Amino acid sequence: MFDKQVTYKRNIVKHLYFAGELSCADLSTLTNKSVPLTARMLNELIGEGTIVEKGYAVSTGGRRPLMYSLKPDLMYIVSVAMDQLVTRIALLDMHNNYVGEVHSIDLPLAGNPNALRDLGQHLKEFLKQAKVPKNSIIGVGVGMPGFVDVVKGVNHSFLKVEEGNSIISYLESVIKLPVLIDNDSSLVALAEHKLGAAKDRQNVMVLSIGWGIGLGMVLDGALFRGHNGFAGEFSHIPIFMNNKMCSCGKSGCLETETSLVVVAERAVKGLQEGRVSMLQGLSLDDMEATSNAIMEAALKGDRFAIELFSETAYNIGRGVATLIHLLNPELIVLSGRGSLAGKLWMAPIQQAINEHCIPKIAEDTEIRISTFGYQAEIIGAAALVMEHYDTLRLAKSKTAGDHQVV
Ligand SMILES: [Zn+2]
Fold it and tell me: From the record, what ranges are coiled-coil (predicted)?
């Protein structure tokens, strides 16, 4: 498809995107190519305006190597982060900086036959307003909840397409750019593993706390997807005898006692029953505003709001205890929308682990809050595009023939 040098250069670009800065020796090791060949490619990439020299690395005793990084405005990625209620669209550069505003759209997915068409229209509109040339955008990464088949490009839960069609081909026909899709929790895990709190770790459980409790599993250094790609349905493990109906149609799932929806429902009920709190006028009609208000109140020290998170976090911890027993992870990362509540999650989760885990198995498992937080899915959608950068069909530029990058 591409000649060897183009493939190698794209591979270098990919490694620099994920690492930020690398030396010639680092790149030679990572790509398994000789140092002279790597040095020649780096010189060509500098000449082409793709990469820049970043000066010498901090000394570790020997000769300090010259470091290279990607030019941030080299090219751009459109990231789409969907959850069941809200879709965010952002344009990111090669250093994962936002270019312009993040567009946030109310786009309910459950029972919405127009969801895919609406997404296509919003993307088209977003691209029309983007402040960069379209041929500098290499692709669109889309994260979405549900059972996503990334190969066939379909979602078995939402954004339904007719038999034989795919979400990918539909969106590509509307926006004329390469599109990649994946499950939202997998993208949160990808962001954390490649660029965030789980970087360079081998066995990590990345929880995505939102309208459900998503899970991305990094096992032996790679994202584990299971036989059909549906691994990690943490939200639906049956650990409660509460007779509460779950969104999946079963009852007693982890999600029935732990999502931000549950936090909001308990908050509204508590206030109706006269609980004292700085929270006022909450409504379940605007779930996003309500859950943000509760997180804000909890961070300001509101006792009732903190209690809501403690109860939820303890229940998440019961689920985490199961994960620790099964998979012996070195790290649990709390990510996603709910991680904005930060440290409030940590102590109750740890408490549940203390109560429910065999100490020997849990003693080396660390819990960390994501530094990406609510941005993790957006970063993950961009990382998804860059993961496939070496095989991506790039847009043709009328002025420069093939895409001018590499
Ligand atoms: Zn369920």
Answer: none
Asked if the domains at 4-70 and 199-371 fall in one CATH topology, the answer is no
Please tell me the predicted confidence (pLDDT) of residue 386: 97
**Predicted local distance difference test score (pLDDT) of residue 401:** 37
Cα-to-centroid distance, 330 and ligand 1 (Å) = 27
pLDDT number for residue 396: 45
Residue 197 to residue 18: CA distance in whole angstroms: 13
Report the SS3 class of residue 102. Answer: coil
Query: Which pair of tokens denotes residue 62?
Result: 């020997």
What is the sign, positive or negative, of the torsion defined by CA atoms of 197, 80, 70, 31?
positive
**In this structure, what are the phi and psi dihedrals at residue 79, rounded to the nearest 5 degrees?**
-110, 135
Domain 4-70 has what CATH class?
mainly alpha
pLDDT at 392: 83
| Whether 174 contacts 312, CB under 8 Å | no
Q: How close is the Cα of 242 to the center of ligand 1, in Å?
A: 12
For residue 64, what pLDDT is reported? 85
72 C-alpha to ligand 1 centroid (Å): 42
Please tell me the CATH superfamily of domain 199-371, with its number: ATPase, nucleotide binding domain (3.30.420.40)
Strand, helix or coil for residue 47: helix
Q: What is the CATH number of domain 76-187+379-391?
A: 3.30.420.40
Measured in Å, residue 234 CA sits from the centre of ligand 1 at: 9
Of 198, 197, 258, which is closest to residue 222 (Cα–Cα)?
198
- Centre of ligand 1 from the C-alpha of residue 245, in Å: 8
Question: Domain-by-domain residue ranges, the chain?
Answer: 4-70, 76-187+379-391, 199-371
What is the 292 CA–ligand 1 centroid distance (Å)? 24
3-state secondary structure at position 324: helix
State which residues of the chain have pLDDT below 70. Answer: 1-2, 59-60, 394-406
Q: 244 CA distance to ligand 1 centroid (A)?
A: 10
Q: How far is the CA of 255 from the centre of ligand 1 (A)?
A: 6
Task: Quote the pLDDT of residue 403.
Answer: 46
Residues with CB under 5 A from ligand 1 (ion): 236, 246, 248, 250, 253
